[in-house]
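Posting this for the archive.
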Amino acid sequence: MDEKISNKDELIKQATDSFFILMKFGSKENLEKLQQGKVYMKNLDYYINLENETSNEDVGDKFDGLMPIHDLDISILNPETNEPIHKFKANMATMNLGLKKSPVMCMYILDYRNFTNADLNDDILSIEFTFTDEQKERISKFGDSVLLIKNTQEFFERMERGLVADKASFSRDRVKYYNKNILQHFQEVAEDYRRIAFWKRKKYEHQQEYRFLVLNKTVEDHYTFDIEDLSDISEIVPTEVILNTVTEVRHKIGLIEE
């Protein structure tokens, strides 16, 4: 393979993998409150009940924060001989690790999964990111507006300062998506049970969630706390507008050697 092309491909991959933008979809009224520094988090139980009670699969998820385990072989054993008394199969069982009342903040992360095109002209690399057709259809139901975070590192720092001031411990990360029983899912949760809140079924992959999970507070409905005003690092845009845009990232790079 030509070395120049190989290096170009590596540059594009590195730039694409490292780029991301955080967005919060919702009603304009609620996003204005968040922009002013008022953070509002529903507990995981809210999303569970939303699908169970309304069949809403765009926002709700009846297994949020839970672990469904499929295709089980179940044996009832004699405790003295360890011999099976009865065996049967079950299509699914659900593991609850006690996080249903934990507050969570769900955001959308535009990242490498949205990559559509790249172009290298001399020393300027341009990379484009767009929403998929499925995302345009389904995310449009999240609300009429989106809070676009223009400085993610500063946003993370303000969230952390607000949570620490409220004596809240937390975890934050991208959500991963799974199909039925996969080893990585079980291993992560076995090592840290709280990771169960950062896994969702593959049917929700279009959401591309980034989450903040509060670990040491349980609430019956919601949790609120204050952070610094976000007006200087964010912008509220109509959902319809942002879903139909192309995000272009351009930056200067060093010359590629032949």
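Residues 3-67+98-252 form one domain. Helices lie at 3-18, 28-35, 44-54, 133-138, 152-165, 183-191, 239-243.
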